[in-house]
Input
Amino acid sequence: MKLKGSIVIAFSGRRYLMVRHSQRAWEFPGGHIDGKETPLEAAKREFFEETGLEGSEWRDCGIAELDNESLALFSCRVSGKSKPTTDEIAEAGYFTAPPMNLSFPRTEYFRLLEMAGWEPKKKTDYDIAARDFDRIRGKTATDDKWADAIMCWGKFEADTRVLDIGCGTGRHSLCVMEVCGAEIYGIDYSAGMLEKANAKSRGTWMRGDAANLPVPDRTFDRAMIILVLQHVDDEPVAISEAFRVLKPGGRILIATVSHARIKRHITRLFPGLAKIDLDRFMTVPEMKWHLRNQGFVGLGQHIMRTEPSTERVDDIVERFRRRYISTLALVPEGDFDSGLATFEKLLRKAYGDTVETHVEITFIGAEKPI
Output
């Protein structure tokens, strides 16, 4: 088998390094094998030329057959800012999901990632979660805060047509509809969640995937994606779909949790929980990069922070036992009880019998050019 070249997937945590050639789109570093070079020697040479970095813990990941060509695939660990040593590279950057503009078919990139050890995000079974979703979370005073934030930063009005992508049981959709009268349609992948939504208000719900919306182009004035992208393996595709279904001048509003918030939230005391969320949630800077890269303009970032409230540790532990957030459903069953016991112990050690808590969510708004 004649190898055409070598390709490198360089990991920094869950992120990986990609480069954009002056004459091509984004791709993994790599290139041709020269003379008597071994595939690994070629990989290291090309990687240094294109990124200015050397990498460590190199691993042979096998041969990738792509578009009738064979490439030797290697992975390594890397840190530091990339400084390409060749004019062929226009820019380089770290990503947790590939940009939309790629040199080769998108499926090939994910196949290469999987060969290098990348794994899809852990998924919550929302058909099961739907059974107790509304009962566990319930309607609280915080719901009004959510509605106010969505209407303000999403610029919702009575005459706006809105698509709620990942609507769940319709909690936010119905609250916003009630307050401002916007015409909201919800879409979700979970039939169980939609069944609950439909029981509240018929005729506004659709089943579909955020990465393949069953909606015509330029249909909606607004698109809201509220705490959904952490469940999606390919966030840029979901952003691209939202861009597609928005009318010119339409607005997208994304709600997410920043990595800084994850690191200081009380969930950090539950063994392994913070890592799960740090792996699932794209950083805010990267999400904004993808929005700009796809053509959104007028980006704005806002923080919704509720007033602090005091909760009993017993009540917090009970909420965790009922797995009130999706991350808790991703803890392996055999580890949950011991993790909960450790969480309670650390919580009491850090705070005593009561904890002052608040909700903090990052909203990102942007517009589709006219």
